Amino acid sequence: MKTDVEKAQLKTLADYRPQMAQCVKCGLCRAHCPVFAERGRETAVARGKITLAQALLDGDIGPDDKVAESLSQCLLCGTCSRHCPNQVPVDSMVLAARRELAAHRGRSLLSRSLAAVLRRPRLMQMLAFGVPRFAGLLFHRVPRQSGLRLRFSLPMVSRQRSLPAFARNSFRRSHAEYHPGNPDRPLVALFTGCMINFIYPQAGEGALRALTALGFNVVIPRDQGCCGLPALSAGDGATAGELAANNLRAFSLHNPAHIVALCASCHSGMTRYFCDLGPAYEKLSLRVTDIHTLLVDAGLEAVLQGLPRPATVPGAALHLPCHLRHDPQQAAAPGRLLDALTSTDWVPMDRSEACCGLGGTFSLYHYATSQRLGAIKAEAFRQSGADRLVTACPGCIMQLQDSLDQAGLPQRACHILELLGEALEDVQKLALPASSPTIRAEQKSNL
Ligand code: SF4
Ligand code: SF4
Description:
Fumarate Reductase Iron-sulfur Protein, Chain B, domain 2, binds iron/sulfur cluster
């Protein structure tokens, strides 16, 4: 039964006036913005976007095509904010400016198409079920070992682009909702995200295996849905608010101690953007944690280090998703897990922290720029000599695989959770270290 939850209230562009005033126009962000590095235009960099957003608010410019194009030129990677002396929240401001533009100009075709799918989980499920059955009609593989390529053009999806296949069964449908662990361990809820649910279920398997190996009680709430970030990225605040309310309802029902996000972008959607929507959302967002950080805190490194080491092991290079870089502990966690795996050697790679070039709707609107950023990453990977490219975000996996395919490299991109799942296949439940600081049953206060 659905219960009423607080309506999500998104900030308006005008609410960001104080933060806009914090931009001192020093231009330091120019040295760090991947889009500016490619485009070289002032409107592509944070300072330029803030100036445009302010002019839009003040009525000095109108919501025309040029402004819309400039504000679409942002990967929402947050690199500028991390290097900004005043920590101006540029990505949040760009999202608010896109909503403001949509309010004046109407929503784009992309935004309306996304809303039609994201608001209807059953339609998403039907697509996920139907597309693999018609895959031969829709896609082909050129060369044969590459990802899927469309046989015909679709608006904003290049035929050149290598696409991942839908899984035969979605992760949530192929698992029970509850997975009991040790009675004295807390309950954690899995936030799977759409891509792990429908495209990369093997990453979900890895997460479940790692959590149950550590004795956690796990719930995979049936009614959870999209985190709302794709809708936010497309300037659709109403859909993002509806999706947030749905997730608030779905997770509050189980009262978990932790909500673990398996996807770096979903984690960002459920924390940085979710917490602004109202008190109930903020309270829930405080329970959201990135799975890699939770696994490190719970002592999984020691478990992994205790596993036997095969005679020969492949090398894996790590790409760190932008959305995990906001916090040093989170940024370090995927590398710590990779380092602890005895089945893989961690191979250093140049620019492992550079954006992969996906940026939500950015790669749909600006595929050529997105490809150029991906090509830089693929070249760094080639030079590393690694056998696999590992990351912590399914969106990055899709973009990295496309970049490897475009560069003619045969290697695979995958989620680090997939490697954990393979390594832990035979491990039975293990004791959780007693002094783990973040895993406490008393955190189960009411949401
Ligand atoms: S966004 Fe930050 S780094 Fe960029 S110009 Fe403004 S104050 Fe400087
Ligand atoms: S969020 Fe990323 S792409 Fe957007 S302006 Fe900042 S650095 Fe550039």
